[in-house]
Amino acid sequence: MSVHSSSASRDVLPLLSPMHAVIGPLPPPETEAEYAYETLWNGARVLVHLPGDGTVCLLSATGLDVTAQYPEFRSLASALPVLEAVLDAEIVALDGRGRPSVERLQQRMSLRHPDAVAHATRDLPVQLTIFDILYLGEPTVQLPYTSRRDLLDDLNLAGPGVAVPAAWPALASEAFEQAVREGFDGVVAKRLTSPYLPGRRSRDWIKIKQGDAEA
């Protein structure tokens, strides 16, 4: 299975930029049911291009092709052998307790030489956390968050080194407290009706970190 170059992927799939969240407090009780709550991973953002030909391309938030730095994700292409897709994800390095480690991720991101990268797949493993879908045979960015999550869940992409995180409905404070208990920095509140806005920072997504949960 080969690695697809970014230029080749662009001939098949739309070239999009990630949507970004604003930083803010948890939604108040009167509006909390308008959102779903996902864990804040603090990883390296990537858009995953799957042209449907057995190849995969990872593009960073700035559009750089970082596929060769993470060869363990090549097998993801076999999960969607025919469908063309663009997925929004974060690359995360976990510590011994299964919690995201910025330090370990930075070590992995600094590697470029193929031999160093090959060794790192064993010594500094990373996980691909997929949380949105921008294209699946046709654009999906105009669909509401709930519909995109349903499409993503139906793909059954979870496997070794790949995860689709849970999204808590309605219970803002409970979701935040559980995420913090599990060692994460907080949650992202995503409005259930919101479309995906490529390249934009929108209040439809609110990043809530420890210390920012209260208005």
From TrEMBL:
<comment type="similarity">
    <text>Belongs to the ATP-dependent DNA ligase family.</text>
</comment>
<dbReference type="InterPro" id="IPR050191">
    <property type="entry name" value="ATP-dep_DNA_ligase"/>
</dbReference>
<protein>
    <recommendedName>
        <fullName>ATP-dependent DNA ligase family profile domain-containing protein</fullName>
    </recommendedName>
</protein>
<dbReference type="Pfam" id="PF01068">
    <property type="entry name" value="DNA_ligase_A_M"/>
</dbReference>
<dbReference type="InterPro" id="IPR012310">
    <property type="entry name" value="DNA_ligase_ATP-dep_cent"/>
</dbReference>
<keyword id="KW-0436">Ligase</keyword>
<feature type="domain" description="ATP-dependent DNA ligase family profile">
    <location>
        <begin position="119"/>
        <end position="215"/>
    </location>
</feature>
